[in-house]
């Protein structure tokens, strides 16, 4: 798991800034979106792999969770032409909260949206369905998983806010820490220019004068 100091440093940082620091490609696939009103979190991934209609492995993960973990549940994306199932509802989320889990992120579906809001931890998923899953397996906890093109290992850092979720591999942590500060400085400088009435960024004029830009007369 990532160290506490790193988690605290990245907590509350815009996921957009973090993604910019990591070659603008740190975000989870766009269908994964916030289900709950609470969206802000940062923590170490605790990975789970399971079937689209089974959450036995998700429950099993509760037995090895530590406070601050982010439950990352990977499954084959649900076939919407079939009857989809949820992988997590408010009861499971309540157990997760009590185990100290700080957020739940899945490329599957969930249910009990109002109940999830009452539980209080952020939940991100591809959608909602009232159908319940089975608890038969197979599945795994703690092993590397794949969501979209991303390979996620337990101990990687996962951050979320209203814009979505980003993934910081352990090998990229130092890059993220150094890079987001540069991004933040650049963003604040542009904010200052907006306040003074600028109507275009400084780089735009030179960019439009380059050879690959053509102006056509109306």
Description:
The protein is 29% helix and 23% strand. The protein is of the alpha/beta class and 218 residues long. The strands form three sheets. Strands 1, 2, 3, 5, 7, 9, 12 and 13 form an eight-stranded mixed sheet that branches. A three-stranded parallel sheet has the order 4-6-8. Helix 3 (56-61) links the parallel strand 2 (41-50) and strand 3 (70-74).
Features:
single chain; 218 residues; alpha/beta; 8-stranded mixed beta sheet; 3-stranded parallel beta sheet; 29% helix
H and E order? HHEEHEEHEEHEEEEEEEHH
Radius of gyration (CA) equals 20 Å
What number is the mean pLDDT? 94
Low-pLDDT ranges:
none
Describe this structure in a few short sentences.
By secondary structure, this protein is of the alpha/beta class. It contains seven helices and 13 strands.
Helix-strand blueprint:
Blueprint: H1 4-10, H2 15-21, E1 33-34, E2 41-50, H3 56-61, E3 70-74, E4 86-88, H4 90-98, E5 103-106, E6 109-110, H5 113-119, E7 123-125, E8 127-128, E9 139-141, E10 145-147, E11 150-152, E12 157-161, E13 164-168, H6 173-195, H7 204-208
Parallel strand pairs: 2-3, 3-5, 4-6, 5-7, 6-8
Antiparallel strand pairs: 1-7, 2-9, 2-12, 10-11, 12-13
Helix pairs in contact: 2-6, 4-5
